[in-house]
Design a protein that fits this description.
By secondary structure, the chain is of the alpha/beta class. 38% of the residues lie in helices and 21% in strands. β15 and β16 (360-361) form a beta hairpin.
Amino acid sequence: MSSISRKESRINKVWTSKVIYGLVLILTLMLCRCSETDKSLVKENLSKIVIGYYASWTKAEFDHTKIQYKYLTHIAHAFTKPDSDGNLIVADDYVYPELIQTAHLNNVKVIMSIGGWGNCEGFPGMASMSKNRKRFIHQVLKFCRDHEYDGVDIDWEYVSNPEEQKNFVTFIKELSMAMKAQNPPLLLTMAAPSGAFWGRWVNYEQVVDHFDYISCMTYDYHGEWTDHSGHNSPLYTCGNDPCGSVDGSYAYFLIRKVPPQKLLLGIPFYGRSFDSRDLYQEYKKSQSYGYSEILNLINSGWSPFWDDCSQVPYLRNQDETEIVSYDDERSLSLKCRYVEEKQVAGLIIWELSLDHYQNDSVLLKVIGEEFKKSVPSLED
């Protein structure tokens, strides 16, 4: 072969290599673009924020594969807690990388929920001293980085005196500053009491700007702590009942200067029973039932009723000695429409395992369908 032929051969090989490389690059960019577009579409398929609490102790019966991620924007992984010295306490069975990985693959963010009922004894001591707050915030940020959490949910039940009130504000301001300094910034949310009894100790006006969302726990309006039976989560207050309602809580948070675009309302996937014949009566015993258990009660012969005033259902057993207040598909649709009407940011759900019935998430599907947006095609 002549030197000219060898030179032409080398030129052809270089040209061919460049063409192949260019084609591979174009295909790669197209695939990336499609992937990003798909993620964008998934992210935008709901018109409202929907945060579902995942209780770590339900893993054996309700693992990450049973969650219907398409109806969620966020998962709040419950619970870790602080001790009084500012250490982050994490139970051995809490760490769940498969949950976080699967959520992220479905474009759902996961936040670590800290506290919860019966888990808050360490908050006052942690928040009371600068060194304890600094230690706790450092450990929270490290845990989020190490396990790829997208943020933190503070569930202090409850701030309950003037000293805690002051320390809570300081703690939230310091935590928020540290979280927003991360790259990317981490989310910060709060699970808040539904009314003034505990809410009087939270300076919402001072901390609202430091939260991405404030979640109002609009459930447990009646239970073993009240002197009469009533609805677990009534949409509206009836008969001057002093225990409140979703609508009353919404009005309270507006008074406390929490704007609707930062407010999330709570949805219970459970109900509460009372050993009374009807609502607003004396009782001796109350307990909770998950929605899947409530469906079993209906199938066993309990009679369902609808309260036109409160806009929620309840059940009565056959011998008329017990009632159960709960939410069903109808009441959830009404609450979703209420969220739309009031231009509230969205909902939180306690908790995701409780409506799992015959391999379906019965109530979560209602929320997803109510908040479903029309998704544009790739050509739009």
